[in-house]
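Hi all, posting the design record for the shared folder.

TITLE: backbone redesign
STEP: 1 of 1
STRUCTURE INPUT:
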């Protein structure tokens, strides 16, 4: 069956008559003559197949159907009136949606503050958050399931093919069981740290950082003894607490206060021989990444917010 279509002008006439309960006064209010108003109401009733007004020579009154319809029609007209302003707001990125994925390390401290402030500044932008590792984020971006991601990587090694904004850089620190002999010192000898079994994330999660950590061992002439792999940083820290090994984690992970685990800085490795320089510890970087040709004004607004 063909759906009934009634234009907004007719609905405005319905509201005027419903509020005045007089066709003549409603027409004056609308700066019209009475016959077009009478015809418009009759056409609405014919289209709907419902009587909206009881009419006599002395009075006009809403029927129960008309009374039930009036609040909805008022809301419809109010929404229609707001459409131009809302369209402009959407084009300016003040209204819309941003689907943002993030790695756990940025969620320990920075992200909550960003989300809180952005929602204050742009209350009509829905910021939808999902925690995901870098490999999962890349797949989701390629499928159009998220608009942007906060990813962890080695400095300068952000995923290719995406626009990016570096938001933080931090050193790696060593997570140790609290009862470990190396935990007694405020700064751990790197040579001693590299001799310990290692808990680390799989390479597919953050290839550049995984390679940088392995490069540290190789520069020191060692091969890491992998005790266990785990995806999430919280899980890695919990495995350290369980005594499976030590782990290199971003400094922000120290915000994760796991009883029985301590975090220590490590010194640089000094290779044998005078001409060989010390091997620096790797650092890591977090970047906001998004498709180069993204056409989402709300995302552009969020990117500008993070830049600021």
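Okay, here is what came back for every position:
SEQUENCE:
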């Amino acid at each position: 069956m063909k759906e009934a279509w009634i234009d907004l002008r007719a609905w405005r006439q319905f509201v005027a008559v419903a509020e005045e309960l007089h066709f003549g006064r409603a027409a004056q209010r609308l700066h019209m003559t009475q016959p077009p108003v009478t015809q418009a109401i009759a056409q609405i009733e014919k289209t709907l197949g419902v009587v909206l007004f009881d009419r006599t020579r002395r009075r006009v009154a809403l029927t129960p159907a008309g009374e039930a319809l009036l609040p909805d029609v008022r809301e419809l007209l109010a929404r229609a009136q707001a459409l131009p302003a809302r369209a402009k707001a959407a084009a300016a990125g003040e209204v819309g949606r941003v689907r943002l994925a993030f790695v756990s390390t940025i969620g320990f401290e920075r992200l909550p503050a960003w989300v809180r402030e952005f929602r204050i500044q742009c209350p009509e932008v829905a910021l939808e958050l999902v925690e995901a590792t870098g490999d999962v984020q890349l797949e989701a971006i390629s499928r159009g399931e998220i608009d942007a991601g906060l990813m962890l990587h080695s400095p300068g090694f952000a995923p290719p093919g995406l626009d990016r904004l570096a938001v933080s850089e931090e050193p790696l620190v060593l997570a140790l069981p609290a009862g470990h002999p190396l935990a007694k010192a405020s700064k751990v000898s790197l040579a001693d740290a590299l001799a310990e079994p290692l808990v680390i994330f799989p390479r597919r999660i953050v290839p550049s950082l995984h390679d940088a950590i392995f490069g540290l061992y190789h520069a020191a002439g060692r091969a890491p003894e992998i005790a266990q792999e785990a995806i999430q940083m919280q899980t890695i820290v919990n495995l350290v607490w369980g005594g499976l090994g030590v782990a290199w984690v971003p400094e922000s992970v120290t915000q994760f206060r796991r009883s029985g685990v301590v975090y220590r800085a490590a010194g640089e490795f000094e290779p044998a021989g005078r001409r060989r320089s010390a091997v620096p510890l790797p650092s890591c970087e977090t970047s906001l990444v998004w498709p180069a040709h993204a056409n989402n004004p709300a995302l552009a607004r969020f990117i500008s917010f993070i830049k600021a």
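COMMENT: The two ends are 54 Å apart (CA to CA).
Let me know if anyone wants the other runs.
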